[in-house]
Amino acid sequence: MSDKIEIENVGQPGKTYRVDAAKFGVVKAAVLAVLPDQAPGMAVSEVIAAVRPRLPPDLFPGGDKAGWWVKAVQLDLEAKKLIARAERPPVRLYRI
Questions:
Q1: Nearest 5°: phi and psi at 4?
Q2: Cβ-contact 33, 54 below 8 angstroms
Q3: Separation of alpha carbons 94 and 65, rounded Å
Q4: Domains in the chain, start-ordered, CATH in brackets?
């Protein structure tokens, strides 16, 4: 049985979700490694493309579910004010 952690969602303050700790940790580290530290940042599709090759194949065979995990990490890191969205659409992310 895998360990779980609670994550937040910037769009739903006060609500938490339980997710696989190992997968979340790997994707979080990858997202923080690829994001620039200033606006305008990277489009979410660019983040997913940059993160996918960094994921271990035993946890993410063929990069499966990378997009879902990047989004979960994005929303949690935004809630924790570790990353932000650029002010103008489309959504572009950067480290704070």
A1: -120, 150
A2: yes
A3: 22
A4: 4-95 (1.10.10)
Residue pair 22/59 in contact (Cβ under 8 Å)? The answer is: yes
pLDDT of residue 1 exceeding 60, the answer is: no
What is the token pair recorded at 86?
């650029």
Tokens 């895998």, residue located: 2
Structural contact between residues 94 and 37, judged by C-beta atoms closer than 8 angstroms:
yes
Has this prediction a pTM greater than 0.70? yes
User: Distances from the Cα of 90 to the Cαs of 41, 44, 86, in angstroms?
Assistant: 11, 9, 8
pLDDT tens digits along 40-82: 999 999 999 999 999 999 999 998 899 999 999 999 999 999 9
